[in-house]
Amino acid sequence: MLTPELPFERAARERLGEPLFRYMQGLPADAFGDENDANHLALRRFRLLPRVLQGNESIDTHITLMNQTWAAPIGVGAFAGDRIFHEEGLLPIARACKRLQLPLVISEETVTPLAQIGAEYDRCWLQLRAAGEVARIKALIDQAAESHFKAIVLTVLAPVHPVAGLQPGGFSVGDALKQRGWHTIGGTQPGVEPLPAFPVWRWQQIDEVATHCADRGLPLLLKGVLHHDDAAPAAAHGVSGLIASNIGLRQSARWVTPVDQLPDLQAVTRLPLLLDGGIRSGSDAVVARCLGATLSLSVRPVITALVTGGETAVFDLLSGWINAISAISHWCGVSDMGALNGSFVTEARD
């Protein structure tokens, strides 16, 4: 099954060149066929069931997550090396998210300084890699608090490749940054901060990070949680939410898809669940919401829009998704996002 081409995708391929474009797509070394987009294919299995004669006169797409209110159950996920894709980095995305009041996750592998991002949009979340010394993480959390960020995302399935050439598409963001003499938020030298490739942390380190976040008034979300045994104890360790994610299948095409794991995660935790992976439309976000995701994060379509049309294209893409969420939810016969549940979805039989 071939996945449909994203808006602006052909132009983005031409502008970025094949290696960087393939990196953006997230094609891992062991991918086969079209499974590099298995996350989206998993979402496409589901169809929405409209409800009629409900008499709804209005629809409210706002959601509340960790005491923060957002315009819709959609946000923009983190990506590395932002200035490689656009001369302003992710600032055009920040401006679009501010206009729309949507969350924006900032990677520690971003080139644009935290203070500059925070001055542009003070409702961002900072994503850090759960690797290396905890002191490194704490220092970055302090920077996020000083820049008025609103949450910390800790990637526990760290996207670091232990073998050369396993980077998505064979493209190394670290090498590209070194060539340009750029360093990231999380590093002091050109390139990406070198960290251990495998998730060697334990709950003891999570406890330290969660305590530090709490002292700074920042909720902590764990990203890369797919196994129910990892989700079950999270709340007891000071975690405020979980992001079901296989890191865009960048490490391996064999990881399970996050949408398929939502039921297992829901069964063992009452923490808010977010979905990261495969979201490419407003209807995808509605399906995810029905399946238990409080909010969904999307990256690839937003980068594609950024590359080809800057802030205007990003704003148009995301506002179009909000409009689709509003219309589809209204057609499902609900007046707010909290009413969406599993009764509104069914798996396709084709």
UniProtKB/TrEMBL annotation:
EC numbers, comma separated: 1.-.-.-
Any one Pfam family match given in the protein's UniProt record, by short name: FMN_dh
Molecular functions per Gene Ontology: oxidoreductase activity
Keyword Flavoprotein (UniProt): yes
Domain FMN hydroxy acid dehydrogenase, chain residue ranges per copy: 1-350
EC class of the enzyme, as a word: oxidoreductase
Keywords noted in UniProt: Flavoprotein, FMN, Oxidoreductase
SUPFAM superfamilies xrefs: FMN-linked oxidoreductases
InterPro entries: Aldolase_TIM, FMN-dep_DH, FMN_HAD
Cofactor dependency: FMN
Protein name according to UniProt: Alpha-hydroxy acid oxidase
Originating species: Pantoea phytobeneficialis
